[in-house]
Amino acid sequence: MSGNEQWVAFLTILTKEIRRFLRIWPQTLLPPAITMTLYFVIFGNLIGSRVGNMGGFDYMQYIVPGLIMMSVIQNSYGNVVSSFFSTKFQHSIEEMLVSPMSNLVILLGFVAGGMVRGILTGIIVTCLSLFFTELSLQHAGVTMLVVVLTSMMFSLAGFINAIFANKFDDVTIVPTFILTPLTYLGGVFYSIDLLPDFWRGLSMANPILYMVNAFRYGVLGVSDVNVMFALSMIAGFTIAGFAFSMWLLNRGIGIRS
Amino acid sequence: MSALVIENLTKTYGSGVEALKGVSFSVERGDFFALLGPNGAGKSTTIGIISSLVNKTGGKVSILGHDLDGDRSIAKRQVGVVPQEFNFNQFEKVLDILVAQAGYYGIPKKQALERSEYYLRRLGLWEKRDSQSRTLSGGMKRRLMIARALVHEPELLILDEPTAGVDIELRRSMWEFLTEINKSGKTIILTTHYLEEAESLCRRIAIIDHGSIVENTDMKSLLEKLSVETFVLDLASPITAAPFIEGIDIRLRDERTLEVDVPKTALLSDVFVKLSDQKVSVVSMRNKTNRLEELFIKLVEKNLPQEKTA
Fold this sequence. Notes:
The structure holds 2 protein chains of 2 kinds. Chain A is mostly helical. In chain A, about 75% of the residues lie in helices and about 0% in strands.
């Protein structure tokens, strides 16, 4: 296939993915908007007013970047895992596998679809947060880079989950038992400086901590961790996820017999 | 140039099941080829490997001179596959399924829409273009898969049981359609359980059993191998005992019906003369079973006792 044909194939998957999540927007875009609004009202306004300052900012301002990042993570992951698994489940993945489209294009198409949903949800949550607090972008470049890399990384993670999933339960186990706890413990609602040494040390092993803090640095200019180290970690995980996904696709694991 | 060359194809699944044990055959360009075999013989595995849905263990597949391993992209472009099971997104609209499939082959949107309209019209699905595919009848879903397999205009079309569960009228119209596209130059490979379908459509045939090719020849030569053909004769008046003709096995099915085994060496006209001599008048005649069916059973039944003891 020529480069132009591969591009057409990529756009076909991407368009299909975007149309899919827009068509079912009450399941894809509305829930994070409602959930995050509740977080802003309960944790930001009601409880936050009694918490006081954190990291030099009022509590609402402090948690907003983490909540935006949380919605980006959950939606990038959720889009790819549900879409790719249902493609596998209905066997319509065979439409792609019989075509001359490369495995790279298949992967990029699904990952780009997940990234678009993750970033779009992030934008919606950011707009909603402006009803509750003021945000000033301190480092626009870092902010964009973190959002793009994080959405890519979790789209890849969703893809890997879908490859190994054999039933619908398998696509909910990871988000429920791994992703959500790691996100809550990833410094969304607090600074790890508040934790005892042992728990602070343990938190440093949580990859989501680096994403949340790097994004908070981009928006507020403060971070619990070294930002360059955080960006390197995110980039490293993304590259590893990409390489592993390509290896799975090339071996046909979970999709070819 | 051959449309398809398969050499020593082997497949052993992770469970240890040896589905293909060195399958080799070729299909000439423009041919209408039948690949027959009982359930579990290896037909779908062979088709799965040709269409890249199954990883082969060993062997070589070449499509219109392009090796499926070395020249994968060009080889895959030449093939259109109509699988046995419905494998499209049940919630997508009919037209969207075709346009997306064209897109996977790198065909730009405008051209994809034109081709989709052409094939949907030809297969009588244009009126359903905006319907969700799950709302289509079984026959319409099969036609949708044929349209989808043709939208990138492949040279080789592979159909795995295309008329399974399709009513007779629709089956006939699909046969006409397939004959028409075969005449336009496309090579067709067909697997089917309806042996009448294979006999009336295909010029060449391969029979696969237990992962090995047991016959590979043209339809005419294969049918010539039938040493005995069984006919059912409907009689003008009732009789009480089967008439006797030397060298011909005749059974009385009921008082107005005879079953006659006629060897290839005997003349059917002689049988009628001898029956007439015995005051037996025949009003109509038909084959007891499809001729290909008789051969097929003979070719694969030798494996049955082993299967029972396995």
